[in-house]
Amino acid sequence: MIHFVLLISRQGKVRLTKWYSPHTQKERTKVIRELSGMILSRGPKLCNFLEWRGLKVVYKRYASLYFCMCVDADDNELETLEIIHHFVEILDRYFGNVCELDLIFNFHKAYYILDEVLIAGELQETSKKSVARVIAAQDTLIEHAKEQSSSLSNIIAQATK
Amino acid sequence: MGTRLRDMIRSIRACKTAAEERSVVAKECAVLRNAFKDNDQDYRHRNVAKLMFIHMLGYPTHFGQMECIKLIAAGSFPEKRIGYLGLMLLLDERQEVLMLVTNSLKNDLSHTNQFIVGLALCALGNICTAEMARDLAPEVEKLLHSNNSYIRKKAALCSVRIVRKVPDLVEYLTIPASGLLTDKHHGVLVSGVKLCTELCQANELALEHFRKHVSTMVRVLKNLVVSGYAPEYDINGITDPFLQIRLLRLLRLLGKNDADVSDIMSDILAQVATNTEGNKNAGNAILYECVQTIMAIEAIGGLRVLAINILGRFLANRDNNIRYVALNTLVKVVSVDTQAVQRHRATIVECVKDSDVSIRRRALELVCALVNETNVKVLTKELVEYLKVSVPEFKGDLTAKISGLVQKFAPNKQWYIDQMILLMVEAGQYVTSDVTRSLVVVISNANDLQSYTVRTLYRVFQAWDGQESLGQVTVWCLGEYGEMLVNSSNALEDEEPLTVTESDVVDVVESVLKDSRVTSTTVAFALTALLKLSSRFPVCADRIKALIFEYKGSVVLELQQRAIEFGSILTKHNDIKGALLERMPVLDEATYSAKHEMGVDGHHSTAAVASEPHANGHVKQPNGIGKQPVANSNLVDLLNFMDDQPSNPSLSSGDTLLDLLGDGPIGGGNSTVSSAKPSVGGADMLLDLLSLDGPSPPSTTPAVTPLAGLLDADPLSKIPLGNLSLDGGTPKGPPAVVDPFADLMSAPAPSSTPAPAPGFPSIVAMQTSGLKISFDFTKSPESPKTTIIKASYSNLSSNPFTDFVFQAAVPKFIQLQLEPATSASVLANSSNSVTQVIRVTNNAHGQKALVMKLRVSYKVNGQNMLEQGQVNNFPAGL
C-alpha cells in the first residue's frame, strides 16, 4: 500500500501531503524533513527509489516538483512510478498544463483529484477520463450551489431594502 | 469577515523571511479562531480551507477540528466536500474527535447523491479506526452491491481498510468481494482485485475460496492481454497495466503451494512474459510483477527460465530503475536457482560499484547471497578492491559484509587471517570488536600460524594509520606471541625472512600506546601487552616498566589502575611473574560462540546466580560481603555478559592477586598487603559506587580467580582479548566479585538467597516485555525425585503489577505443590522482589525431563493481563 504521498518543491517546500497510515504531526514534520533532504540531494541519473526505514520511497521529478510516494518494501516500484505519472497526467488535464502555482492556489482541488485516484493507499481508478468526468461533475454541483446561494442572497437583499 | 483564500495564500507567499511568515500566519489564525468562536456559518468552509493551507505549512491547527465536523453535518455538498477534506487532512485516526463523525458518515453512506456517498467512503477508507470500521461495515458491504460503479469501487477500497483494521470481518466480506471479480468496470475491477488480495493475505480460508475463482481472473487477464487498443485504459500501448499488475499479484498468492492452480495460470503467465513490450516503464512494471509471480508459484522449469531471462535483460538495461528491480528480484530468486543467477555474477559485482546507493545496497546483498566456497576468493578480492575506493558512508556496510563472508566461507585459516588483516588495513575503523574477537580466537587456535600471523601483523603495522582494530589485534598478538617474532620460528615456505629485535617489538606497542588517535581501550590492550612482554623480553624490562609507570597518573581510571597494578607485579612479584604472564591457553571457539549466542539471546541473566562451589572455596573473605562461593563457570558467564561493554574482560587482577598473596595460602608476606592498601581502598569505593548506582557502572568485570598458576586452568581465560577492566581490581576475591554484578541485576542483595543446588543453573522460565520469571533449583540428596523450585518474579516495567497470580500445570508423571507467594503485588522496576516456592516431584525421574506450563495473571493500571508459556529448558537431571 501507499503509506503517504508528498509533493515537495525543489526548494524543499511542501505542496501536498496525504497520509494513509497514522503519523503524528511531529512524525510528519520529521519524515518530510528527512525525506526532502535525501531526495533533493540525489543526482538526476540515479534510480527513483530510496530504501527508507524498511519501506521504499518512489519519487519522480516533474519540472520544479518532486512527487514522492512511500510504499511497502515488496510493492512494485515501477508500478508506483506509473501511478505517480497517472496522477500527474490527470492534474495536467484538469489544470491544462499544470504548474506549481496551480497547485499552490488550488491545493484543495489537487486533494480532491488525489481522492479520486487513491483511497486507503490503493489505486481506485485507472481511467484518466473517468476521473476527469467525476471531478467536473462535482465542480458543477458546487457552481450550482454557489449560484443558488447568491441568487438567494440577492432575493434577501432586495427584500430587505 | 476576513480575506479570501487566494488573498491569504498570496500574502503568505509574499513573505520574505520565516519570521514574517510566522506573523502573517499568526494573524490569520487569530482571525480564524475568532470566526470559529463566533460560529460564523457563511464562511466556515472558506475558513477551513485556509486552515488546511496553514496546516500544510506545518503550523498547529487542532483548533479547527470541530469545524470540519460541523461542516460534514451541514446539508450541502460544497460544505461536506471541504469538511471531509479537512477531516482527512487535519485529523488522523488517533484523535477521539473522530468518533463524533461516525453518525454523519452513516447518514452520508445512504445519501441519494452518489458524490456525497463517495465522500463518506473516501473519508472512511482513509482514516477510519477499528471501531468505526466495525460500526459501519454493514453499510459499506451494502454499497459493494450498489448498481453505481463509482460507489462500488470506493466501497471496495474502503473494505480494504476495514479488513486491515478488523481482520475478523474477512469472512463477512469474502462473498461480496468475489462478486466484484466479474465486474465490467475497470475501476471496480482494480479495487475489487485489491480487496481479494487483501482478504487472501489476511485469511487462509479466504485464500481457499478465491482459488476456486482463479479461472475468472485468468480470463480477465487474458482479455486485457489480447484486447486491441483501448484508448481509455491505454498506457504506452498496453491496456490497463495497473489492473494487469494487480491480477498478477493476486494470482501469485493463489498459485503459491498449489500445483493445480499454478497449472491453470501458467499459460497466461507465459503469454504475459513473452508478449509484453519491455521498452517502456509500464511494460517493465508488468514483466517485473510477472517474474515475481512465476518464481513464487509452482511453475514448470520452462517458465522459470523465461522469468530468469527477463531478469537478465533487466540487469543489462541502462535504466537504473530497471537494474534496481532486477537486483531486488534476483535476491529472492537466488535460493530457487543459484546457477542461473551465478551467470550474471560479473554484472552484479559491477553494480556494487554503482554511484547510486540504492543499487549498491541491493547488489551487495545479492553478491553476499551468491558467495560460496568456490568463489569466495575471487569475490572477496573484488570487494576488498572496491572497499579501497568506495565512499566512506558505504564502507561500514561493506566491511561488515566482507568480514561475514570471509568468516563463513574461508577455505583455510591462513587465508582467513590474511583477509582479515587486509580488511583491517583497508577499513580498520569499521571492523567491529566482534569480528576482531573471533579473529583472535582463530589465531589462538592455529598453533602453526601464530608466528606467521605475528610477522604479517608486524609488517603491515609499519603502515599503520590509527586503525583501532588493527592496533588492538597487533598489540594483543605481540603480547602473546612476541617472542616468535624475534626468533623467526615456524616460517612458511614462501615467506620473506624478517629480522626483528626485542626493542622493535616494544617500539610497536609503544607507538600504539602513545598514539593520540586510539581509544583508551586500545591503550589498555597495549599496557597488558607490555606487561606480558616484560617476562618474554627481560632485556627490555626496564623500558617497559618506565612505559607502564607513565600511566600511573592517567586521568582515565582504567589505565591508571592498570598501570599501578602492573607496576606492582613488575616491581614486587618477580617470583610469580613468569607463571602469571604465561601465554593464554587456546581459546575455545565453540564455548565462545555458544556463550556469545547466549548473550545475544538475552538469556545471560541466568548466569547471575551462582551454582557451584568455587574450586578455591577456601579463599579467605576479608570483609564478608559475599558469602557464597562462586563457580568458575559463572564467572565466565558473567564475563561474557560484560562482553558487550566497551572495555574488555579481565585476564587477571593485580589487586585480587595482592590480596590473595597477602591473605591467601601462597602468601607474599604482610608487606604486600600494606602496599596494596591504597588501591584496595579505591576499589572499595568503586564497589560502593556500584552497589549504589546499579544500572550504570562503566563496566563491571569480575576479578579473576586467585593465582597465577590457576590462570591457565581457569575457564575465564577463554575470553579472548584478556585484559584488565575497570573494576577488575575488586579486592574481595571471587565472592565479592559477584556482588556488584548481582546489584546490577537486581536491587535486593542476594546474600540472603540460599545457594542453589549444585549442578542446576537457574533458568528464565518466562520473559515478556514487562515480566520476568526465573527459577532456582534445590534438591535434597535424600529424595532425588523432588526438586524445590524457587520462582522469582521481576517487574521490568515502570508500573506495579497487582493481583499477581502464578499458576503452573505439569504432566501426570509429575506432582506439583505451590506455596503462596511472598506478595501478590510486584513493585515497578523491581527484580526478584517476590518469590514463590514450587515443590515438584518427578515420578519418572531419570527417564523424563521436567516440563511445565505457566499461566500468570496480574493487573497493570487496572488492566487485566494474562501471560502463558511453557518451560522446556529445565536443566537436565531434575
UniProtKB/TrEMBL annotation, chain A:
Main location: membrane
Annotated Gene3D superfamilies: 3.30.450.60
Keywords carried by this UniProt record: Cytoplasmic vesicle, Golgi apparatus, Membrane, Protein transport, Transport
MF-aspect GO terms: clathrin adaptor activity
Record's GO cellular component terms: AP-1 adaptor complex; cytosol
Domain of life: Eukaryota
Subcellular location: Cytoplasmic vesicle, Clathrin-coated vesicle membrane; Golgi apparatus
Bilayer topology annotation: Peripheral membrane protein
InterPro entries, per database record: AP1_sigma, AP_complex_ssu, AP_mu_sigma_su, Clathrin_sm-chain_CS, Longin-like_dom_sf
Positions of the AP complex mu/sigma subunit domain: 1-140
Any GO BP: cytosolic transport
A family per Pfam: Clat_adaptor_s
Assembly and binders: Adaptor protein complex 1 (AP-1) is a heterotetramer composed of two large adaptins (gamma-type subunit and beta-type subunit), a medium adaptin (mu-type subunit) and a small adaptin (sigma-type subunit).
Family as reported in the entry's similarity comment: Belongs to the adaptor complexes small subunit family.
PANTHER family: ADAPTOR COMPLEXES SMALL SUBUNIT FAMILY
General function of this protein: Subunit of clathrin-associated adaptor protein complex 1 that plays a role in protein sorting at the trans-Golgi network and early endosomes (TGN/EE). The AP complexes mediate the recruitment of clathrin to membranes and the recognition of sorting signals within the cytosolic tails of transmembrane cargo molecules.
Annotated protein name in UniProt: AP complex subunit sigma
UniProt lineage: Eukaryota, Viridiplantae, Streptophyta, Embryophyta, Bryophyta
Automatic annotation (TrEMBL), chain B:
General function of this protein: Subunit of clathrin-associated adaptor protein complex 1 that plays a role in protein sorting at the trans-Golgi network and early endosomes (TGN/EE). The AP complexes mediate both the recruitment of clathrin to membranes and the recognition of sorting signals within the cytosolic tails of transmembrane cargo molecules.
Record InterPro entries: Adaptor_Complx_Large_Subunit, AP1_complex_gsu, ARM-like, ARM-type_fold, Clathrin/coatomer_adapt-like_N, Clathrin_a/b/g-adaptin_app_Ig, Clathrin_app_Ig-like_sf, GAE_dom
SMART domains: Alpha_adaptinC2 (SM00809)
Alphabetical keyword list: Cytoplasmic vesicle, Golgi apparatus, Membrane, Protein transport, Transport
Record family assignment: Belongs to the adaptor complexes large subunit family.
Record localization: Cytoplasmic vesicle, Clathrin-coated vesicle membrane; Golgi apparatus
One Gene Ontology CC term in the entry: AP-1 adaptor complex
Main location: membrane
Official protein name in the record: AP-1 complex subunit gamma
GO biological process: intracellular protein transport; vesicle-mediated transport
Leader sequence segment: none
Residue ranges occupied by any GAE domain in the UniProt entry: 758-875
Family matches, as Gene3D superfamilies: 2.60.40.1230, Leucine-rich Repeat Variant
Organism whose genome encodes this protein: Ceratodon purpureus
This protein's record includes keyword Secreted: no
